[in-house]
Amino acid sequence: MIVECPECNSVDKRSDELAGTQVSCPRCKAGFVAEGSRQKMWYYADGDNKIGPIKQDSFDGLVDDGIIKPDTLVWCKGMDGWQPLQASTDKCDKCHGTFVVTLLQDHNGIRICGSCKLLAAGETANTWSGLEFGGIGSRVIAKILDLTLMLVFALMIEGLSRKLFPAAYSTNVVTPVFAVTVLINMLLGVFYITWFVGKLGATPGKMVVKLKITNPAGGKIGYGQAFGRYCGEYIAALGLVCCLTLFAFWAISSFFPLNPVLASVSGAIVCAAALVYGPAVFDPQKRTLYDRLCKTRVLAA
Predict the structure, then answer these.
(1) Which of 116, 141, 153, 282 has a CA 20 to 30 Å removed from the CA of 173?
(2) Is residue 75 included in any domain, yes or no?
(3) Rounded Cα gap, residues 56 and 105, in angstroms
(4) Residue 297 contacts by C-beta under 8 Å, 6 or more apart in sequence?
(5) Count of domains forming the chain
(6) Which pTM value belongs to this model?
(7) Contact by Cβ (8 Å): 286, 133
(8) Do the Cβ atoms of 203 and 197 come closer than 8 Å?
(9) Pairing between strand 2-4 and 11-13?
């Protein structure tokens, strides 16, 4: 259900089980009783078939996944007949952004813009004509620029560490100084992506090629979602897929001999990168695996 804070008028998505209980606003911390409105029930046309009723959350998910397209005929109670999803647009009084009216959540007659009033459990997922998704070539260039810049910072940190503690690098043994240096470089990478994306909507590499990272509605994401996107890309996606790929190589090699290059760590990294970034080549919205996990989009700025 959708609830609205009586103090700051921000909206939030909460479990239906919390209806009638005391909750706190994530923005202003004010306490109030959760009284959400019932979700809309939607219908959409698939050829000559009318599918529904579908709850608002499920409907938003179908739009987000591209199953319901901008030209798909939709209907819910209160609409004047069936109409394409993109047929009716409006301007938000707060952020002046254009959004699809049929995707707005209703609460006590108040229309909620998915761009400027974000929902805690994921924004209203809007898809409409006019969004220009970032190209694969631009994203590759941005990734190379960001990784190069992060590598330069990492080498500077390591160089400073070697200068201050030369004895820690005189042997092949992993020393506490070396471990701390590696940890600092890892945290620097987390800060680099989380701060730039959360604050400015893009890393320096993406700024150079004029790309921005947004939520499905084209709105700005915050620090929390930016950190989640970092974890989704480097831990949940690349890290997990790489480990699973290595395990698959090991299992297959028990029965069939594999090329040593393919079955190496480098081969697993290449395969993992293909599985993580490859979906963007075929997806109309240019979503990678972690874009799907984190519900983000990369748009042309």
Answers:
(1) 153
(2) yes
(3) 8
(4) 131, 133, 213, 214, 215, 216, 218, 285, 286, 287, 291
(5) 3
(6) 0.56
(7) yes
(8) yes
(9) antiparallel
